[in-house]
Design brief:
41% of the residues lie in helices and 19% in strands. With 121 residues, it is an alpha/beta fold. It has a 5-stranded parallel beta sheet with strand order 2-1-3-4-5, with helices on both faces. Helix 2 runs parallel beside helix 3.
């Protein structure tokens, strides 16, 4: 069974880095979004099993995505990957339903620990 993964980040380099960090079991069906608006379009129209979400993006930022998903009742495991590591921001994304807050650039061992903790490995 494949896992439908969405990686949302405005940086092509960051999207590729997250994709390359995914374990083989999660890297078979991956979609990419450049901003929150693209991510929301995908999330509203397709079954996505896990979302990796940046916070600082144009059009709709990561907080906007989290708020929209919560308001629309769309639930899925969300792993925020951001360089904005202020405790207030970390608390905010967790309040909005994120499973974990990972520092950018994502470290392979930290990513795997979090995926394992949430039943993806």
């Amino acid at each position: 069974m494949s896992t439908n993964v969405l990686i949302c980040d405005d940086s092509n380099l960051a999207r590729k880095q997250v994709f390359r960090s995914l374990p083989e079991s999660l890297s078979t069906d991956v979609q990419l979004a450049k901003n929150g608006e693209e991510a929301l379009d995908i999330l509203r129209s397709q079954k996505i099993d896990i979302l990796f979400l940046d916070l600082t993006m144009p059009v709709i930022d990561g907080l906007g995505v989290l708020q929209a998903l919560k308001a629309e009742g769309i639930t899925l495991p969300i792993f925020v990957i951001s360089a904005d590591v202020q405790p207030e921001m970390q608390n905010r994304v967790m309040e909005l339903g994120a499973k974990a807050f990972l520092r950018k650039p994502v470290q392979l061992d930290v990513l795997n620990e979090n995926l394992k903790a949430h039943g993806f490995l």
